[in-house]
Amino acid sequence: YTRALNATKLERVDGISCITKHAKSLSTIISGACDGEVKVWNLPKRECLRTVQAHEGYVRGICSRFCGTSFFTVGDDKTIKQWNMEAPGYGVREEPGQGTAVFTGIDHHQREGTFVTCGQVVDIWDEQRSSPIRSFSWGVDSFSCVPYNPVELKVLHRLASNRSIVLYDTRESAPLRKVIMQLRSNTLYTCDIRNLDVPVNVHMDHVSAVLDVDYSLTGREFVSASFDKTVRIFPKDKGHSREVYHTKRMQHVICVRWSADNKYVLRRDEHSAMEGQRLGEAWTEKAAANYNKKLIEKFQHHPQVKRIARHRHLPRDVLKQKRELREMKEARRRKEQNVHKHSKPGSVPLLTEKEKHVVAVVE
């Protein structure tokens, strides 16, 4: 009986596979699960606004239309589907669906009625047509994600399984540029698309693979989710994180989003408040939080206050892996210095940390 009960409980547990933000509403998010179910959530009220059985199998990607009236989903059943943000009226049926290939990601244009999907190729779709209006490919590798550039709206970025990053211009007939990295891209390199030979910054603190990243609304910071069971917040121009989140129940974090009001970080199906704020806090709690904040500002240079504010507690496993990585980097650095010292002058140059990560740039 106990085993049957546990098996039934485990059968009902379906992990969140992807999360996206509403294009217009600050309080609405959309999540997709491994069982093909998609839910629309209201964060302040903590309630589900709509539930849709969108796909058979994993929901691989979700994106909101730029006007916020509908959203698109892709799944393992080789279909792209468009859904209204609100449930249809009584007697009205939704019959979305198009596509005949396996899709791994989707993103919508911020001003036009077009969207892009990725899988074996990159396809650009018009909402009114059932076939792609343009397709791009470079090699035979599969693509994991293909977001639109938030500033240059005609530019696409694509991450591939062969350690490469490819740039596309929707106005061109061929890809623009391909950057081959030292390791498979883990979305923690800050690059300038005008000069891709060397990253602008390399963000280091995670001790395992980075699985997802999302920028804040201000663009000054971004949050990252990692296989090392931690969530970190990085300033865009710093190489190390300013904040780290972890709990005993937190396992491998596979997706993370920064809320549109710049106050919360959403990971999988839970939320963690930042800077002492919580959803729905009373005015007395706000007053106490403001009072504590002023106290910290007043005594911020006190040695004990400074030590506690600077310290970040980490799990024992993360500390152990961090120590091992530090020893490996030191050994690699000593080897490079010895090779440089005992080689012909100028034959073995010493590379900076930024120069080590890019193998080649292909036009």
Secondary-structure map:
Layout: H1 2-11, E1 16-21, E2 28-33, E3 37-42, E4 47-53, E5 59-64, E6 70-75, E7 80-84, E8 105-108, E9 114-118, E10 122-126, E11 134-136, E12 143-145, E13 155-160, E14 164-169, E15 177-181, E16 189-190, E17 201-202, E18 210-215, E19 221-226, E20 231-235, E21 243-245, E22 256-258, E23 264-267, E24 270-273, H2 283-298, H3 303-310, H4 316-341, E25 358-362
Antiparallel strand pairs: 1-2, 2-3, 3-4, 5-6, 6-7, 8-9, 9-10, 10-11, 12-13, 13-14, 14-15, 15-25, 16-17, 18-19, 19-20, 20-21, 22-23, 23-24
Characterise this structure.
- This protein is α+β, with helices and mostly antiparallel strands.
- The chain has one domain: Methylamine Dehydrogenase, Chain H (7 Propeller).
- Helices cover about 15% and strands about 35% of the residues.
- It is built from four helices and 25 strands.
- It has a five-stranded antiparallel beta sheet with strand order 12-13-14-15-25, with no helix packed on it. A four-stranded antiparallel beta sheet has the order 1-2-3-4, with no helix packed on it. It has a four-stranded antiparallel beta sheet with strand order 8-9-10-11, with no helix packed on it.
- Strand 6 and strand 7 form a beta hairpin.
- The chain is globular.
- The protein starts with a helix and ends with a strand.
- Its main location: nucleus.
- This is Ddb1 and cul4 associated factor 13.
- It comes from Sinocyclocheilus rhinocerous.
- It is found in: Nucleus, Nucleolus.
- Belongs to the WD repeat DCAF13/WDSOF1 family.
What are the key terms here?
single chain, 363 residues, alpha+beta, Methylamine Dehydrogenase, Chain H, 5-stranded antiparallel beta sheet, 4-stranded antiparallel beta sheet, 4 helices
